[in-house]
Amino acid sequence: MTTPSPEKDCYFCKVSRGEADPFIFENRAFIGIFDAHPANPGHALVIPKRHVESIFSLNDTEQADYFDAIRGVKRVIETTDLTDIYQEMLTRDDLKDRPKGQIEAILRLDFIGRKPDAYTIGNNDGREAGRSIDHLHVIILPRYRGDVDNPRGGIRNVIPSRANYQRR
């Protein structure tokens, strides 16, 4: 019995082959997509075309293209009518069997038509960091004034009891 390669069954490999989720950006080493389970309007992913699990395993070409991809996806976020994107997601055939609650919630947000005020950019590098798909994907999460009560601590909030700290 042959064990399937991770690339064959990996969802993000399917995405990078053009079999799921339309690209919003592409360069030599990366593609970008809007996340179909958005946390905020414009939530997008930057995914290497090659199956690689860790940011620390990127080769020289991928490292050279990394920031180009992040900047490219940011430009797309800021020049796209996000209301149209999410309304279209509600009717996409490839998403028909997926839950739509997060998309519907995004469409109800007061700030959906605004340009982002800031960004949280991150990568859950490993299962213990919260990654659910074992293929590197960098999260580009637009942030909007008022999207949370207190954004202080930012990414540190993944460990809530240690997010607030005193600075001298």
TrEMBL record:
Pfam families: HIT (PF01230). It comes from the Bacteria. InterPro entries: AP-4-A_phosphorylase, HIT-like, HIT-like_sf. Residues 11-150 form the HIT domain. GO terms for molecular function: catalytic activity. Signal peptide: none annotated. This is HIT family protein. It comes from Lamprobacter modestohalophilus. The lineage of its organism: Bacteria, Pseudomonadati, Pseudomonadota, Gammaproteobacteria, Chromatiales.
